[in-house]
Amino acid sequence: xxxxxxxxxxxxxxxxxxxxxxxxxxxxxxxxxxxxxxxxxxxxxxxxxxxxxxxxxxxxxxxxxxxxxxxxxxxxxxxxxxxxxxxxxxxxxxxxxxxxxxxxxxxxxxxxxxxxxxxxxxxxxxxxxxxxxxxxxxxxxxxxxxxxxxxxxxxxxxxxxxxxxxxxxxxxxxxxxxxxxxxxxxxxxxxxxxxxxxxxxxxxxxxxxxxxxxxxxxxxxxxxxxxxxxxxxxxxxxxxxxxxxxxxxxxxxxxxxxxxxxxxxxxxxxxxxxxxxxxxxxxxxxxxxxxxxxxxxxxxxxxxxxxxxxxxxxxxxxxxxxxxxxxxxxxxxxxxxxxxxxxxxxxxxxxxxxxxxxxxxxxxxxxxxxxxxxxxxxxxxxxxxxxxxxxxxxxxxxxxxxxxxxxxxxxxxxxxxxxxxxxxxxxxxxxxxxxxxxxxxxxxxx
Length: 446
Prior knowledge:
By secondary structure, the protein is α+β, with helices and mostly antiparallel strands. It folds into three domains: 1-166 and 264-318, no CATH class; 169-260, no CATH class; 345-432, no CATH class. The protein is built from 19 helices and six strands. The strands form two sheets. The chain has a four-stranded antiparallel sheet. Strands 1-2 form a two-stranded antiparallel sheet. The longest helix has 23 residues, at 14-36. The protein is globular.
């Protein structure tokens, strides 16, 4: 059978080893950068209220212990890099990083989700069988060759990220109106050489169309050997340019390094040789000509099933927005976890009104009493966050002795520079609405 033939194919383990080291190092740098910028306190300790993901209401902030959680995550990243007690290290990294990510929905970013997805995949792959502390200490687990599908699984994840980002750009505002780039690009007018051009309308259209084509094509150009070098050059140029234009942190570097997985194992061996010179341990120690078979790795195929099911889930999840009515960018139902990267400029205001349902007495809430400015900005344009905050206000004022508490919101939102419009039905008591995966009919039509 063709499937069995594919599962029997092997490739050099250097590919996974180099990916593991570079991934771990980037994660460590990212965590140190996050702490150095003071974001641990600003985002996860100082706020009085935290927005939770649907289905993860059990995840709670842990106050000052958050510093310890970040330190634990950093130590796990070091363990992943070294391949030291790899299974424990990668599971610890996945759980700690994902817990941090889930503590407040306000901080959601596609690249945080990407890291969690990649870390989960890495749990099931033989990343430590070559050029690792584990393999150095135990020659029984060393393997110079591994199943090809273990490398391809990482390529699939990267392919999904790029291709789905390209699909998402096939929309009217992005291609016909060059929005939101027409709004954003002029803000970088002070960049040397290209700054003046960024104020030109045609440049926004060029970036919109080329960005869409790039995302759709780059996975295939990387897969095909004759175009791989030029494709990687485009990856580097694209991500460095986006890093210069937009404040998107470490994501461009993570994607540049990750796409190295598409290259032949000889490239990864050269990368490992660089590390060999730095630490004084020859790569040849691990070259034992042993091949790790799929049967040895998968233990009756259950690891293959886990990876396969997870990849299928990643293929399907971005399409869940199709079950909801209305404009996706307006309602944001099914927007997260679908690789829709920087596709809209959205801003709004949300003024909450507390009403005594029996007497009709009312007063307005100053959101600054409960939320940070960043939380308030994010909440004002995202319906699930609006209703969750309304529940918090209901419970808070009820605990303060207010009777028959009802919560209403007067909200206005602008999408991609259009005139602001009423967003949430002001006549709906949000304290009685549920934050579920079903359609939120209190969102007004765009």
